[in-house]
Recover the amino acids of this structure.
């Protein structure tokens, strides 16, 4: 069973006494803890003036766990102009799918996120309960050849590079995209390079910021934002920027398939395909701490591969020709006289005790 919520700023929320940023619509019977978890994923950072069409939309897919149950959450979080008080507003629409629903889905998550008729872009009505099992209608679009990647970064092969990160133990990907870029189209084209059973195992965010609250493998950053600057200064994992170029020798099956549109023959199956059963989605969601450990490991690998500068040999310390065990002659005599004095005092004490005892 699926559940959804709509989260925005309103004078009255769905729950009693709720006001300001709160849930204004939710599926009837949604578990309280699941609703609270979805609310925590509603962060948004305005890059431009509220209401501007230049503000990006964050389409997100990620796995969350609530009371030992895993949910795959599809989200659309975007600018919503200003609220009733004149402050900047946002609207977040989340759809939580159970694992059984994901197994029965015959399309990638991008196809569901592309249904413009399902996702709320504004909320002007009174709070209300939504009917059970509302689902988007899949909007399928061709992902091969990868024209969005070619248009944005000049080479369709980048779609294959991003897809290959899944084979490399879900290596983190950071793509710095320009304003107006179709980031959801980029994600869709990369997913098309993977087997269909891997589509829902990849988590992504098309407008990743520090406030988005997403734990994602593929992160698309807006050029000019603080997050993009940090990635440029400290690159980790796969970083794709306007100045990035694919190594001319990197002509594996992923890159070739993305450029040509032909079917890809993988060099080796992804690790998850070897270890998990067909159609299984019970892998625990990646957490922020796991991502940080992976990024730290990537930095350590880069440091090991960096050219090392051999330190100059230091001049050897001059060695004292006199052995350390040898002590000056004066010290030896001083020790001898002290020992002799102590022995004399001891003998004198014994003699006095003897006289007293036998007197």
């Amino acid at each position: 069973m699926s559940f959804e919520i709509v989260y925005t700023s309103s004078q009255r929320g769905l729950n009693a006494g709720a006001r300001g940023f709160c849930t204004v619509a939710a599926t009837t019977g949604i578990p309280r803890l699941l609703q609270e978890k979805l609310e925590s994923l509603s962060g948004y950072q305005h890059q431009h003036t509220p209401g501007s069409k230049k503000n990006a939309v964050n389409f997100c897919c990620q796995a969350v766990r609530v009371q030992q149950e895993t949910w795959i959450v599809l989200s659309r979080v975007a600018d919503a102009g200003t609220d009733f008080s004149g402050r900047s507003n946002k609207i977040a629409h989340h759809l939580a799918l159970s694992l059984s629903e994901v197994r029965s889905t015959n399309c990638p998550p991008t196809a569901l996120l592309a249904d413009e008729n399902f996702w709320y872009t504004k909320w002007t009505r009174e709070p209300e309960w939504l009917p059970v099992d509302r689902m988007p209608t899949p909007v399928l679009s061709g992902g091969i050849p990868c024209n969005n990647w070619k248009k944005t970064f000049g080479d369709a092969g980048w779609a294959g590079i991003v897809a290959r990160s899944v084979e490399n133990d879900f290596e983190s990907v950071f793509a710095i995209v320009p304003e107006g870029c179709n980031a959801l189209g980029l994600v869709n084209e990369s997913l098309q390079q993977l087997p269909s059973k891997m589509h829902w195992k990849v988590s992504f965010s098309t407008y990743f910021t520090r406030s988005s609250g997403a734990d994602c493998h593929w992160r698309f950053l807006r050029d000019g934002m603080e997050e993009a600057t940090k990635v440029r200064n400290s690159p980790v994992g796969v970083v794709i920027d306007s100045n990035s170029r694919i190594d001319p020798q990197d002509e594996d099956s992923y890159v070739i398939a993305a450029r040509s549109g032909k079917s890809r023959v993988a060099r080796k199956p992804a690790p998850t395909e070897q270890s998990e059963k067909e159609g299984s989605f019970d892998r625990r969601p990646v957490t922020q701490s796991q991502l940080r450990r992976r990024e730290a490991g990537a930095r350590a690998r880069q440091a090991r591969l960096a050219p090392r500068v051999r330190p100059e040999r230091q001049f050897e310390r001059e060695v004292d020709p006199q052995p350390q065990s040898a002590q000056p002659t004066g010290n030896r005599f001083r020790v001898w006289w002290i020992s002799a004095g102590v022995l004399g005092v001891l003998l004198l004490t014994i003699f006095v005790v003897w006289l007293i005892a036998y007197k």
In short: The mean pLDDT is 84. Strands lie at 3-10, 20-27, 58-66, 69-82, 88-98, 128-130, 173-177, 204-205, 218-222, 238-240. The first strand starts at residue 3 and ends at 10. The chain has eleven helices and ten strands.
